[in-house]
Amino acid sequence: RERCREWRLKMPTSRRIVTVVAFAAVGSVGVLATAWLYRSVKDYGWDGTLRLIWEGDHYTPAVRDALDELENLETQAAVRTSLMDLIETSLARAKLNTVDDDQSVKKEGWTAAHRPGNLEKDLTRLSYDLDKLAAKVDEVLTKHIDVRPKKKLLSSELVKLMSRADELLQIYQKKEEATPAFQ
């Protein structure tokens, strides 16, 4: 013990401070690592935590594939939503332009991509694409708890889009029957 005291007394003050700071830093890192590990094990379990440390993702490859597929399908649904909005705009414009009896006024409001002849084709193609997307969503396996809410949300969004497409198709077909200018 005497030697230890002598050594401490001979040690310069700045060196003691560095030693104390180093021990404090190592202790803090240890406490933070332990807290992170505890939280990770609590959230993901041991398997998920080890997968997170080793692979960088706590999901199994099958669950990750399912989530990636759902994200891809969400992107495709967003594209279909924007196409649906464009078609709705064209139909609204057509509805406004058919109020007058002048045939030239009726044709001015159409966009280049959505003329009356193309609208029915676009609506049926959109309805078909939405059906295919819904089938792909149904194919995604939902064994994991994180996949279920995403799949349910995407399915309900697609159902809303499909009903919108069917309503637009009915509106277009009624309008086509009512006005010969669409042909």
Summarize the structure in short.
The chain is an all-alpha fold and 183 residues long.
Question: What key phrases describe this protein's structure?
Answer:
mainly alpha, 6 helices, single chain, elongated, 183 residues
What does this molecule look like?
- The chain is mainly alpha-helical.
- 83% of the residues lie in helices and 0% in strands.
- The protein is built from 6 helices and no strands.
The structure class reads mainly alpha
- What is the CA–CA distance across the termini? 105 Å
What's the total number of strands? 0
Q: Order of helices and strands, N to C? A: HHHHHH
The major β-sheet equals: none
Question: What percent of the residues sit in helical stretches (DSSP H or I)?
Answer: over 70%
Mean pLDDT over the residues: 77
Q: Output the radius of gyration.
A: 32 Å
* Number of helical stretches of at least 4 residues: 6
What overall form do the CA principal axes indicate? Answer: elongated
Content of β-strand? under 5%
Write the layout of secondary structure elements.
Layout: H1 2-10, H2 13-55, H3 61-97, H4 103-108, H5 116-139, H6 147-178
Helix pairs in contact: 3-5, 3-6, 5-6
